[in-house]
């Protein structure tokens, strides 16, 4: 069975909103290797609407950028109740039907794992539905004070720490699984 692997850049105070505005000073080869390891295990990306729109505004227009071959070439499933189409970024498809049922069906299908990048609302919903198998948090040494948090005060989600690695930039890469 495939795994759902969610990877998020978050601040010390749990904010994962708009990482493009604060995370790049911490990017290095260590973080690139950690993110690359997730991508190498997956053959499909699962993205929420906001994350898809942000990524779609960059990647299709920058085919020479490092990582563009993976970002543009990997099939993307987009979760949205407001988008009519996802033609702006090749290899993107709207995920139809009930989210939990559709993702459970995807997990049971053939192929490699499915990765989620960012997509706080989507990740939160799949954690609550117990469909996330690994949660990779790249915790940055910065407190942002305001913004959307991964955990929004909803129900308890017990997790178990599988590993943790500290990068030279002070970023902590933690990997959790459902407890």
UniProtKB/TrEMBL annotation:
GO molecular function, one term: 5-amino-6-(5-phosphoribosylamino)uracil reductase activity
Top-level taxon of origin: Bacteria
GO biological process terms held by the UniProt record: riboflavin biosynthetic process
InterPro entries tied to this protein: DHFR-like_dom_sf, RibDG_C, Riboflavin_Biosynth_HTPR
Domain Bacterial bifunctional deaminase-reductase C-terminal: 3-172
Signal peptide annotation: none
Protein name: Dihydrofolate reductase
Organism: Kribbella steppae
């Amino acid at each position: 069975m495939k795994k759902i692997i969610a990877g998020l850049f978050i601040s010390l105070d749990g904010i994962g909103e708009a990482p493009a505005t604060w995370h790049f000073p911490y990017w290095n080869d260590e973080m690139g290797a950690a993110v690359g390891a997730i991508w190498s295990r997956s053959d499909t990306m699962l993205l929420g609407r906001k994350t898809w729109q942000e990524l779609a505004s960059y990647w299709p227009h920058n085919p020479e950028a490092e990582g563009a071959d993976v970002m543009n070439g990997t099939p993307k499933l987009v979760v949205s109740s407001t988008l009519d189409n996802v033609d702006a970024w090749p290899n993107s498809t709207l995920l139809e039907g009930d989210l939990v049922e559709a993702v459970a069906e995807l997990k049971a299908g053939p192929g490699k794992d499915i990765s989620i990048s960012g997509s706080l609302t989507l990740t939160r919903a799949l954690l609550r539905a117990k469909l996330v198998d690994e949660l990779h948090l790249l915790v940055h040494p910065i407190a942002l004070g305001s913004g959307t948090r991964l955990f929004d005060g909803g129900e308890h989600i017990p997790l178990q720490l599988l590993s943790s690695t500290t990068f030279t930039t002070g970023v902590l890469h933690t990997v959790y699984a459902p407890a």
